[in-house]
Structures are given as C-alpha cells and as structure tokens.
Design goal:
- The chain is an alpha/beta fold.
- It contains six helices and twelve strands.
- It has a five-stranded antiparallel beta sheet with strand order 10-9-8-11-12.
- It starts with 5 loop residues before the first strand and ends with a helix.
Length: 277
C-alpha cells in the first residue's frame, strides 16, 4: 500500500474574523482534503516546531501576520532552511511579501488604486475627500485610518502607505487555484463588504484579474484578486492576497465548492510531485 502524502494544515480556527468564520471554512475544506491526504491541523504559532514532520505545509486561514510577525518570520526562515514545501510557496509577490507590490504596480502603470509611501510623492495622488493610511504589513483593516489631505504630510513614513479613498460602486473578488479561475464573489453594498454574492465576470473582468495572477508567477497555490468598480466603470486592484486568502466557500453553490476542492487536490498533487524546492 502506497503511503499517502502527509500535510500540516495551518489555521487559526478561533480567529475572530468580522463577518467570516475561519474555523467553519477550514473544518469543511480539510474534511474534503482528507479523502486524498493524511492531514493534521495546527495553530500558526505551532507551525515552526512541527513543519519538518510533514511532506508539505498548507497555510490557510492563519490570521493577519501582523499579530504574530516574529513567529511568522521564524516559520519562513526554518522552512527555507529545511527546504520544506510550503503551499502557497514563499516567493509570492503579493500580500505575502507585504504591501510593496501596490507601490510597484502603481509605478508600472497597472490598474491599481494609486499608492505612495513618501510625503514628497503625495502630489502624485488624485484628489479625494479623504485618504486611506495603512501599514505596509497590515491586513484585515488592522491599522487602517482615513485622513484629509492636509494631515498626510505630517505622518511618520517608512512603514505606511497612502491611497485616495475611492468612491467605488462595489468590491469584487476573483479566486484562483494555480492560474485557473474558480469563481468570483462581490459585495453589492459597499457598507456591508462581507455580505457576498456570486458574481458572473465578463471576459474583461477575467482578463483584469488574470493580469495580476500572471504578474505574481506563483506557479502553484491559491490566490484572491480583490478589486473595486471605480466610478468610471473600470476595475482597480485593491489587494492581491497570496498568503492566506479567506475563500468564502459558504457563499458559492455546492458544485462550485466541490470543484474548488478538487482543483486544490490536483494542485497539491502537482506541487508535491515537484519535490523539495
């Protein structure tokens, strides 16, 4: 009998996410993954001590890294030192590496909410009623504030980003396994951003989302491309989540949920077949 691959699945089942139930999603998804893999769950603070006993580590709903930054850096360092296979792979260029990509994509002319991180660059931002100020290592709205333009010059830059507050029509998210689109969800009411409904993307919408997946060049893994529909009708990137994106699987029909899980199984199988990095 051939031994099945053994996975360490990293999740914070008790994380108090607003409008989302991390634990429910990971309990349901791991129940499906157990059909193909031997699997154990652990809290992100325990992952470093356990990772070398498994064929691969799957990082899922582990919460904002800002809450355990030193432990996460220790996990990355040990995984890289041991050559441990981590899914998503640790070379992601999106939120996995902080918010620098928003600056890089702004400079490269991508359709992203304009972003700066220096007082001398504030003049490059379009006019807005207020501006979002967020930490480069932030997530889940941690550290987010909104300020008028006249207060921006006095900020202590270095670890902060500034963006105009966009008066968008709605937010929409595109979910990918590897480079394969799975489904899209949107929040029709901007004031209730976690009340999501299925969204049928146009060819243009998918081309927009795929542009960022291609840019990230992750190879294997789960990515969520978050965007907003600007007043002119175009889409602007809000976030490229490639570390531990919440999937809102409870918001999609059962066949879509099953196909996502099947795609993840295929992706993990191909990823494990590559051998150690």
């Amino acid at each position: 009998m051939t031994a099945r691959p053994c996975l360490l699945y990293v999740t914070d089942l008790a994380y108090p996410a607003r409008g989302r139930r991390y634990g429910d999603e990971d309990v349901a998804l791991t129940a499906r993954l157990r059909e193909d893999f031997d699997l154990a769950l652990c809290h992100p603070l325990d992952a470093t001590a356990l990772l070398d006993a498994f064929d691969a580590v799957v990082v899922r709903n582990s919460g904002p890294v800002l809450g355990y930054r030193e432990a996460y850096e220790a996990f990355r360092e040990r995984a890289l030192a041991l050559g441990t296979r981590v899914y998503n792979p640790l070379h992601g260029r999106g939120d996995m590496a902080g918010k620098q990509y928003l600056l890089d994509l702004t400079a490269a002319g991508y359709p992203v909410i304009p972003t700066v991180d220096r007082a001398e660059d504030l003049e490059r931002l379009p006019g807005a009623a207020s501006y979002a100020v967020k930490p480069k290592a932030g997530a889940d709205s941690m550290g987010l504030s909104f300020l008028p333009y006249e207060e921006l010059a006095g900020l202590a830059y270095g670890e902060l980003l500034v963006q105009p507050r966009v008066d968008f029509r709605y937010e929409v998210s595109f979910y990918f396994v590897d480079d394969l689109f799975q489904y899209a969800l949107y929040a029709p009411d901007p004031e209730r951003r976690w009340v999501l409904e299925p969204y049928e993307p146009t060819a243009g919408d998918l081309a927009f989302a795929r542009r960022f997946v291609d840019w990230n060049a992750l190879g294997h893994g789960i990515q969520r491309v978050d965007a907003c529909r600007a007043p002119d009708g175009g889409l602007l990137l809000v976030e490229l989540e490639d570390l531990n994106p919440y999937l809102s699987l409870d918001r999609v029909p059962p066949p879509v949920r099953e196909e996502f899980a099947a795609a993840m199984v295929r992706s993990l199988g191909a990823f494990l077949a590559q051998g150690r990095p």
